[in-house]
Amino acid sequence: MQHSFNLALNNEEDTQNLAEVLSKHFTAGVIYLIGDLGAGKTTLTRYWLQAMGHQGAVKSPTYTLVEPYNIHGKDIFHFDLYRLNDPYELELMGIRDYLETPDALFLFEWPSKGGEEIPEADLIINIEKSEDNLVRMAELSSHSDALQQALEKRFL
């Protein structure tokens, strides 16, 4: 069953709290992070990786396309497809090698630019900025009953 959950991210603490829930329920799979420039996709990713135990910086892979992490033996790949001109560029960079990594977590910013070169998402997070740019609204869509229950417990 498809679940949807909406919440306001009024500050970075709210984003951090969301990331903590996500880090417990999505440690593997394909995640789409959708939102305009400056919506908070990389900020959410940073808190998510920190909640999983990452120490150190988390930078946007805008120019490198992918930033790999290994946290406690867990492979995580953070992709930013914003500068991609053609989905085929992913094939040329060897995306299949990344996607064949067992039990990995794949975070895709700007997934629409990946076309059919990237797999379907297990979780879609759409973050929209308010008109005054002070609040972010996050909509999460997945088939995970456990995530839905955790979100409801934490945020309702």
Describe this structure as you would to a colleague:
The chain is α/β, with parallel strands linked by helices. It has a domain at 28-130: Rossmann fold, CATH 3.40.50. The chain is built from 5 helices and 7 strands. The chain has a 7-stranded mixed sheet, covered by helices on one side. Helix 1 (12-25) packs across helix 2 and helix 1 (12-25) runs antiparallel to helix 5. The longest helix has 14 residues, at 12-25. It is globular, with a radius of gyration of 15 Å. It starts with a strand and ends with a helix. 29% of the residues are buried. The mean pLDDT is 94.
Order of helices and strands: EHEHEEHHEEEH
Order of strands side by side in the largest beta sheet? 1-7-6-2-5-4-3
The total of helices stands at 5
Query: What is the rounded distance between the termini?
Result: 20 Å
According to CATH, the fold-level topology of the domain at 28-130 is: Rossmann fold
CATH H-level superfamily title of the domain at 28-130: P-loop containing nucleotide triphosphate hydrolases
